[in-house]
Design brief:
Number of domains: 1
Distance between the termini: 69 Å
Shape: globular
Largest sheet: 8 strands, mixed
Number of strands: 14
Helix content: 40-55%
Structural class: alpha/beta
Radius of gyration: 24 Å
């Protein structure tokens, strides 16, 4: 196997080594993995000893110590939290199968590079749009490396890459035990139990989407305020859901991940809000953390095909693992489940600055970057631009003949811990979805009080048949008044004072 450029870009971040056109484990690592495959581990304490042995055989991994408390975290979970029966199954069946899978990682990678063309595993660097297509089997082996903390970490921060090993996840369990951290680990353990029992044979794609800051042929560039103000595109249909969850939508919509700029956020640390929960119930999303550096303001990450494995209840501190989930979503021609997730990171703690036009533009463009199609596939797997996106100014972009039945499923993006204004963020996402020619936006309010009148407001706006430009100009006017202190009203009350003062539905 020739050492391809794609492989060169990622090799320093993988635990395997390349020599003589082959990928392989060092001999000592092979012997340790073979021992693990024979069932030589029977406790969390012994497991961590095996992890340490494996890391010593991989010089790139052993050069950086694991997080203090990781050893105690592995022992706590596997020796104290797991029941005797669960531990027996894990160490007697699941872990040996996982070790044997890891032995096959070099051959799985070689097969991947032999078959992949434009979609090979590589670093998807910032400002470089591209797509990686991985088999679920290869992803499971990569996540096995995360469990055993085998990925080198020395140069990851320099490349703005998030954490990928699981040592912080287990250390946090020991340092400050709580049930939500335990439940996060149960989701991961359940994933390994399922894939070692029956390996899924589909694929997952990971795409970095970029709106170039300068006009570029064949690409939509980063819009300026005039672009939004001049848009004559009609607003898309707006659906309000007062109950339910984004991941449970059944309309085939693109599901928004309320992301950190480092994809995954605190999933492998202590975090347990929207993004982290999604990464636990769909663990294949974690693979993106291996090769996706942090997102800039003009970037988004789209992941298609990640399977869901776990049920859950609660949120944040009340999050609980609730057993198996059978994912019955159909697959596309590439073998990807029709689960489309778009990661977009909102401004963190913007305060009053979020009403400045430059930050309003940033948020709208961030959502637009996520919602507008950029890369696609023909049946012959050749990478192409969907719909021949070839415009750089507002007139040309608006003339795109874009037909697609894939809407947007979203909610209170950037409005929780990030401190965004929920009324403004709702409108921002509606503008972006409409400009991207999405047919509808399904909005899940999660019971947020500030959005109790959203259904009334959205229907009133739709009844007036406003364009994207009309609504953008009103949002800018409101935000300017808010920034100057000329109003303290929320956007909905400012827009429809008589309707919201009476708190009645004019269509009843």
């Amino acid at each position: 196997m020739e050492e391809r450029e794609e492989l060169k870009s990622i090799l320093g971040y993988l635990p395997v080594v390349a020599r003589s056109r082959s990928l392989f484990w060092p001999s000592q690592a092979v012997e340790t993995l073979k021992d693990l495959g024979r069932g030589r581990v029977n406790s969390g304490e012994v497991l961590f000893t095996a992890i340490s042995d494996l890391r010593r055989s991989l010089s790139a991994s052993s050069s950086h110590p694991l997080t203090p408390g990781a050893a105690d975290g592995y022992a706590l979970f596997f020796d104290d939290i797991m029941s005797r029966e669960e531990s027996g199954k894990w160490f007697g069946e699941v872990f040996p199968a996982l070790a044997n899978l890891l032995l096959r990682l070099p051959s799985l990678l070689q097969l991947h590079y032999q078959n992949a063309e434009d979609t090979a595993l590589r670093l998807l660097d910032s400002q470089q749009p591209g797509l990686v297509l991985l088999s679920q089997e290869l992803i499971s082996a990569l996540l096995g490396c995360s469990l055993l903390c085998l990925f080198p970490v020395t140069d990851r921060s320099a490349k703005h890459l998030p954490t990928i090993n699981f040592d912080h996840l287990f250390a946090a369990l020991y340092d400050s035990y709580n049930q939500k951290q335990e439940s996060k680990i149960w989701c991961i353990i359940h994933y390994f139990e399922k894939i070692t029992s029956r390996m899924p044979m589909g694929f997952v794609s990971f795409e970095r989407k970029v709106l170039p800051l300068e006009p570029t042929p064949l690409r939509i560039s980063y819009p300026k305020a005039e672009f939004w103000s001049n848009s004559v595109i009609p607003l898309c249909r707006f659906e309000v859901h007062r109950s339910g969850l984004i991941e449970d939508q059944s309309s085939g919509a693109l599901e928004v991940d309320f992301a950190n700029k480092y994809i995954g956020g605190g999933a492998l640390h202590r975090g347990c809000v929207q993004e982290e929960i999604r990464f636990m119930i769909n663990p294949e999303l974690i693979a993106s953390m291996l090769f996706m550096p942090s997102m800039a303001d003009n970037e988004a990450i789209e992941i298609v095909g990640a399977e869901r494995f776990s049920n859950y209840t609660g949120y944040a501190s009340s999050f609980r693992f609730c057993g198996d989930y059978v994912d019955e979503r159909d697959s596309d021609s590439l073998g990807r489940r029709k689960t489309r997730i778009i990661a977009i990171d909102a401004l963190c703690s913007p305060g009053m600055k979020q009403y400045k036009q430059e930050l309003l533009l940033r948020e709208t463009n961030k959502a637009f970057c996520g919602f507008v199609p950029q890369l696609g596939y023909r049946e012959n797997n050749a990478l192409v631009r969907e719909n021949e996106l070839c415009s750089v100014d507002s007139t040309e972009i608006q003339s795109l003949d874009y037909v697609d039945d894939i809407g947007i499923a979203t909610g209170n993006w950037g409005c929780g811990a990030f401190g965004g204004d929920p009324e403004v963020k709702t409108i921002v996402q509606w503008l972006a979805a409409s400009q991207a020619r999405r047919p509808f936006i399904s909005y899940y309010t999660s019971g947020m009080k500030a959005l109790e009148n959203l259904d009334q407001v959205s229907r009133w706006i739709q009844q007036h048949q406003w364009t994207v430009g009309d609504l953008w100009d009103l949002l800018v006017d409101y935000s300017l008044q808010r920034w100057k202190g000329e109003t303290n009203e929320g956007f909905f009350t400012w827009l429809l004072p008589s309707l919201l003062a009476s708190n009645t539905d004019m269509w009843d």
